[in-house]
Structure formats: structure tokens, C-alpha cells
Design brief:
400 residues; alpha+beta; Jelly Rolls; eleven-stranded mixed beta sheet; two-stranded antiparallel ribbon; 12 helices; binds 2-oxoglutaric acid; binds fe (ii) ion
């Protein structure tokens, strides 16, 4: 515990879904869950070994487990991975390079290199290193992207002692969950709203909270900070839009997903509209020189490049979820879990009617925001999608 820390709630016993929904997903509050949640994972049994002396090691500042380098190398050595150099900054990120996992393993103990964003399940679909915990399984982003067979937000991270992830908030203001297989992570969380204290007068964000120019960032001390040490085996829930920095202690392996659902839909939607606004402002001088629809199209292309999604992707995701919700309510037991892969066991989610309402609220807000939306979607051949969503969801509201 340090400085102006506010406590993060810790659950030794696994919370029920309903409890987690009411106390963490809806109010958007961080949580830490004890090792019981991950105790049956293959990754926790096969990937790590207990450190010598860890039983009589009273030093709680050191990890209890360490990676089994030979096993990992034998299983995954040939995979290509993306590695960040933690002492070379590249604008708001660290300098990245691609290498084989075998090459990374040799660098790992140095404490300078950090393997990030490894789409592990995509690379090894049969291996089943872990199961998505039930409290995080209602996940629209991965459901949509996997159905489209395009991408996913399911990652493995491996870093040496002293490696870190600079201050940031997650893509699309998604939630994230992160389970430590070994090592300790020191998390600094900034509650939403306080990130304004972490910016300079040009809007640039502090890169490393442990080491920054106090003249350039004079207000950092004013920000509330929640600091937590996440130990081997435990899982942290990172709420939507909370900035955070992560510093690794010891050799760490973690598994994390970015995800979203009806509970943070409003936040993800507002993040998309604010990114779009930034893009529009950045090319405002071109607005007069092109027809309005060409301007809209250019902004969408830039939005896709800058934020990883655009209006079309957002509408397609909502349509995919709406179709599933509609089918779900038509089936007598409200549960299609048996027809879905285990990742998307659908029994644990908010009431379908409430989810439908959240989507419709966002669509309504959106229609009022942009007169060009329908025209743009028509141009992209997607004009019937919004009607389709409304057709599927409105009867759900009436069914209650
Ligand atoms: O573990 C890390 O280094 C970063 C993880 C992170 O930023 C997240 O889970 O959102
Ligand atoms: Fe993050």
C-alpha cells in the first residue's frame, strides 16, 4: 500500500456472477480475485514451477512461481511473437519488434524485453491453456470478431523483472481482465476523470508515472491513484476507461482479454464518437475542399487506422449481438449455451430485455448525432443493418 491509495476489493472466494455484475461491472469498479479462479488452468500447472525456497520465503515482495523455460520453449519455441523494448520509447508506446518465441526466451531473464499481445488461443487453438472465468464470459467484442474470423482480443504477456506497460487506457474503453500465472504486477489505477491531471498543456499523457518531468506535468500529484500488487495466480478486473500503468516484479506471465458488453456499451460508444471528433478536428482544414460524404468517408478511414474500428464495425457488432439476443429470447429456456462454444456460455449475462434497451439507447443517440450516418451506411451497403437491429430488439422490450 502506498501514498493516496484507495483499496481495491479482494475476493478470496470466487464471486457469483450476479454479485460481480452489481458490484463491479455496472458501477465500473476494479476488483482482485484470489487464485481459486485460475487453480485448474493448464497454464498454472504446466507453464510454471514453484521457486526454490518459496515456502520458507517470508518476502511477500517476491513471486512464488517462475516460468518453466524448457517446457515453454519445447511447446511454443517456433511461434512468432511481438516484443517491446522497455527502455526504448516510440511515441506513446515502446519500440516493438517481431522474433521467434525461442529468441524471446533467451532475452526474457534480462528484464528489458516484454512479449505483448500474443494472440495465444488463435496460435494454439487446441492447447486450452485456460478457461474464460464465468464472470467475464459475456464478451461481445470477442464474440463478434471471432464470428467474423478477423481478429480477437485474447492475449498472453510475458516479461522480465522491471519490464512495464506505460500509462494508458484500453482500446475502445473496453474492460480488461488479467490473470497472473507467475510473477507480481504492480498496478496503478487512475479513476476516470482524473486523467486530466496526467496531461501536459498540449494534451500529451504522462508516459511513465515513476519518472516524468514535473514541469511538463505539474498536476500529477492531484490525481487519485489506486496502487495494487497482484500476486501469482490472482486475477484483476480493469474497469472501462480507467487509466493504468503496470510494472512487473520478477519474471511474469499473464493472460488477459479485452472485452465489452451491454454494461459498458455507453462508454465504448462515447469513446468511438470522441475519437471520431478528434479525427474530424485533425483534418478540419480539408472539410471545405471535398464533398461532405467524401469527408465522412475519409474520417472513417482515419478512425479505423487510429482506433481499430469505425461505424461499420460498430453497427455490425451490434447487429451480431442483437440477432443472438433475439434468438435467445425465442428459445424457451432463454439459453442457447449448448449451441455455443464454451467461451460464450450465455447463461451468465444481464437480462436480455435490459441488454436490448442499452443497444437501442445507443442507436437513438447516434441517429441524432450524425445526419450522415444513414447515408454513409447506405453507401457501404449496410443501410438495412440498423433497421434489422431495431426489428430484432423492439419485440424483446414488448415481450415483458
Ligand atoms: O500486464 C500488462 O503489462 C498490461 C496489461 C493491461 O494493460 C491490461 O490488462 O489492460
Ligand atoms: Fe491495459
Amino acid at each position: 500500500m502506498e501514498g493516496n491509495e484507495v483499496c481495491i476489493r479482494y475476493y478470496e472466494d470466487i464471486p457469483t456472477y450476479d454479485f460481480f455484475l452489481q458490484n463491479h461491472l455496472l458501477p465500473n469498479i476494479p476488483a482482485l480475485i484470489g487464485p481459486a479462479l485460475t487453480k485448474n488452468w493448464k497454464a498454472r500447472h504446466e507453464w510454471v514451477t514453484k521457486k526454490e525456497n518459496s515456502n520458507n520465503n517470508d518476502n511477500k515482495n517476491q513471486p512464488e512461481w517462475e516460468p518453466r523455460l524448457d517446457y515453454l520453449n519445447e511447446q511454443f519455441g517456433k511461434a512468432m511473437v511481438n516484443v517491446a523494448d522497455c527502455i526504448e520509447r516510440d511515441f506513446t508506446d515502446q519500440k516493438r519488434s517481431d522474433m521467434t518465441f525461442e529468441e524471446f526466451i533467451k532475452l526474457w531473464p534480462d528484464g528489458r524485453y516484454y512479449l505483448k499481445d500474443w494472440h495465444f488461443v488463435r496460435a494454439y487453438p487446441e492447447y486450452q491453456a485456460y478457461e474464460v472465468p464465468h464472470i467475464f464470459a459475456d464478451d461481445w467484442m470477442n464474440e463478434y470478431w471471432l464470428q467474423e474470423n478477423k481478429d480477437d482480443y485474447r492475449f498472453v504477456y510475458m516479461g522480465g523483472d522491471g519490464t512495464f506497460t506505460p500509462l494508458h487506457s484500453d482500446v475502445y474503453k473496453s474492460y480488461s481482465w488479467s490473470s497472473n500465472i507467475c510473477g507480481i504486477k504492480r498496478w496503478v489505477f487512475i479513476p476516470p476523470g482524473d486523467e486530466k491531471y496526467l496531461k501536459d498543456r498540449f494534451g500529451n499523457l504522462v508516459y511513465d508515472l515513476r519518472n516524468y518531468d514535473h514541469q511538463q506535468f505539474p498536476n500529477v500529484e492531484k490525481a487519485r491513484k489506486l496502487i495494487y500488487y497482484q500476486r501469482d495466480g490472482t486475477t484483476i478486473f480493469v474497469p472501462s476507461g480507467w487509466h493504468h500503468q503496470v510494472d512487473n516484479i520478477g519474471m511474469t506471465i499473464s493472460i488477459n482479454h479485452n472485452w465489452s458488453n451491454a454494461c459498458n456499451l455507453g462508454l465504448t460508444f462515447r469513446s468511438l464518437t470522441s475519437d471520431l471528433y478528434d479525427v474530424e478536428r485533425s483534418i478540419d482544414d480539408l472539410r471545405q475542399s471535398m464533398p461532405p460524404m467524401e469527408f465522412v468517408q475519409t474520417c472513417q478511414q482515419l478512425l479505423l487506422a487510429h482506433s481499430g474500428w469505425d461505424w461499420c464495425i460498430f453497427v455490425k457488432m451490434l447487429n451480431c449481438i442483437s440477432q443472438r439476443l433475439s434468438k435467445q429470447i425465442k428459445s424457451p429456456d432463454h439459453d442457447e449455451a449448448e449451441q455455443q462454444p464454451p467461451l460464450f456460455s450465455l447463461s451468465l449475462q444481464p437480462k436480455v430485455e435490459w441488454q436490448a434497451q442499452q443497444i437501442l439507447i445507443v442507436l437513438e443517440e447516434w441517429k441524432h448525432k450524425s445526419a450522415f450516418l444513414n447515408e454513409y451506411l447506405k453507401q457501404e451497403g449496410l443501410d438495412d443493418l440498423i433497421q434489422n437491429i431495431e426489428r430484432s430488439l423492439l419485440p424483446l422490450l414488448k415481450s415483458k
